[in-house]
């Protein structure tokens, strides 16, 4: 099947050709005719399957030509990055039409967005909070919306947007087309779909709650305080030129970025406390290979469209198993292959079991390589997976065993020490003096 078989107009087919595409992905082949037919749609699609074009192309065709100032299609996205990406796709696919697209999201001044909306748009891509801010200031009129899209609906709920979504829906006309796209299907999504959609067509191009195909997944069992040393080794020894690393907290992302930088690995951090300009700059540098590692919190697990990203690392496992799927979905996009590495400390075993239950299989455990520990670390309190306070010991004066029970040995069987006072260990910690 080709895009010309889907009933798209010559203007849209020309834009698709300009982007170098000739064959639709499975979600595009099923979603485009359904949306063109005017049906409500419930689509199960993993990230990286081309779902954005699956709803943007038919929406562009259904809207036809530009009209008044009020938007006629509304696309809600959970993050700034995803909103910007969807708006960029709408502009690219609609470049041979007269339709206008505008993106609005938080983290930047609201005034320029208000000014842009006064000029009119046909497709509005928005994050929920900023959209409601604009609506409260009467800067946007949603009464003309003909098509409403919830993109990454499961992530919307994870981020606590359900009440905002309900408020947005109340601002829309009752007669409209509704499209809901979600990679996973927890009960909350099923409930939302039942309330929002009317006799929808259901499209499922991948097993629900399944990881994207083409991702090589592996686990390293490693002490928490040794994770950064192992990660440095994997990047440097493996010659990785581009790796997206996920942490659970903003503070953890900043700290790890500084540690990797101190080990000679060009690194940037991206999370909710960063300004939009800083986030855009970090992502641009990462795409341009100016930085090797991009350390991100969950906010970046959606909306990061990086072509042929080879490596994703779960430096810390997510509390929500479905987030694991979204994280590793940053690699192996559009049929490419990729590698997802998870660094799992003993206190994260419950999280790992939850992920494996979701995937319905065990993840393979890879034997730890020998890697350098650059300096002893102080004991730091942290919470284990059950929320209990524990203490992680530094490399000095403590012994730890991996899950396989084997102690590591110094490289070459001797207690070698480099000129900088570092020692090399084979994976797990052993008793010794520093």
Low-confidence runs: 378-434
What gross morphology would you assign? globular
pLDDT averaged over residues = 82
Structural class given helices, strands, pairing? alpha/beta
CATH superfamily of the largest domain: P-loop containing nucleotide triphosphate hydrolases
**What strand order characterises the main sheet?**
3-4-2-5-6-1-7
**Number of discrete helical segments:** 14
The percent range for strand residues is: 15-25%
N- to C-terminal distance = 65 Å
The CATH topology annotation of the largest domain reads as Rossmann fold
Q: Identify the CATH architecture of the largest domain.
A: 3-Layer(aba) Sandwich
Oligomer: single chain
Would you count the extended β strands for me?
A: 17
CATH class of the largest domain: Alpha Beta
Helical residues, percent? 25-40%
Radius of gyration: 24 Å
Report on the biggest sheet.
Answer: 7 strands, parallel
Number of domains: 2
Describe this protein's structure.
The chain has 434 residues and is of the alpha/beta class. The protein has two domains: 3-204, Rossmann fold (3-Layer(aba) Sandwich); 215-425, P-loop containing nucleotide triphosphate hydrolases (Rossmann fold, 3-Layer(aba) Sandwich), CATH 3.40.50. 33% of the residues lie in helices and 17% in strands. The chain contains 14 helices and 17 strands. The protein has helices spanning 10-18, 26-36, 51-63, 80-93, 111-118, 128-136, 153-158, 162-170, 187-196, 227-238, 250-262, 276-287, 321-328, 349-359, and strands at residues 41-44, 73-76, 101-104, 123-126, 147-150, 177-182, 201-204, 215-221, 243-246, 267-270, 293-296, 311-314, 338-344, 371-373, 380-383, 389-392, 423-425. The longest helix is centred in the first third of the chain and has 14 residues, at 80-93.
């Amino acid at each position: 099947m080709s895009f010309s078989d889907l009933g798209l107009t010559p203007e849209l087919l020309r834009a698709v050709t300009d982007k170098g595409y000739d064959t639709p992905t499975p979600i595009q082949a099923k979603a485009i005719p359904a949306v063109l037919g005017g049906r409500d749609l419930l689509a199960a699609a993993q990230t990286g399957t081309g779902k954005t074009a699956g709803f943007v192309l038919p929406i562009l065709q259904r809207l036809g030509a530009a009209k008044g100032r009020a938007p006629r299609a509304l696309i809600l996205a959970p993050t700034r990055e995803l909103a910007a990406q969807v708006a960029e796709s709408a502009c690219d696919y609609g470049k041979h039409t007269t339709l206008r697209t505008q993106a609005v999201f938080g983290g930047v001044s609201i005034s320029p967005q208000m000014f842009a909306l006064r000029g009119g748009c046909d497709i509005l891509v928005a994050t929920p909070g900023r959209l409601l801010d604009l609506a409260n200031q009467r800067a946007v009129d949603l009464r003309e919306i003909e098509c409403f899209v919830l993109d990454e609906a499961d992530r919307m709920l994870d981020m606590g947007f359900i009440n905002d979504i309900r408020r947005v829906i109340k601002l829309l006309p009752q007669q409209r087309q509704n499209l809901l796209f979600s990679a996973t299907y927890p009960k909350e999504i099923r409930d939302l779909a039942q309330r929002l959609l009317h006799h929808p067509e259901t499209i499922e191009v991948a097993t629900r709650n399944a990881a994207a195909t083409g991702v090589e997944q592996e686990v390293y069992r490693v002490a928490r305080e040794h994770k950064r040393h192992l990660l440095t080794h994997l990047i440097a020894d493996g010659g990785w030129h581009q790796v997206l690393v996920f942490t659970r907290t903003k503070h953890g992302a900043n700290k790890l970025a500084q540690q990797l930088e101190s080990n000679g690995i060009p690194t940037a951090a991206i999370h909710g406390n960063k300004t939009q300009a800083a986030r855009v700059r970090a992502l641009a540098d990462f795409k341009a290979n100016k930085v090797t590692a991009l350390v991100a919190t969950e906010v970046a697990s959606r909306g990061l469209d990086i072509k042929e990203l080879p490596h994703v690392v779960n430096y810390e496992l997510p509390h929500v198993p479905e987030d694991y799927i979204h994280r590793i979905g940053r690699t192996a996009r559009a049929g490419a292959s990729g590698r997802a590495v998870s660094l799992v400390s003993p206190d994260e075993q419950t999280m790992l079991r939850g992920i494996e239950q979701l995937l319905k299989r065990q993840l393979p455990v890879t034997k730890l390589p020998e890697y350098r520990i650059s300096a002893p670390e102080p004991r730091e309190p942290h919470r284990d997976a059950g929320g209990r306070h524990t203490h992680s010991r530094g490399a000095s004066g403590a012994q730890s065993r991996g899950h396989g029970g084997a102690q590591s040995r110094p490289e070459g069987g001797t207690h070698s020490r480099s000129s900088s006072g570092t020692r090399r260990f084979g994976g797990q910690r052993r008793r010794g003096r520093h």
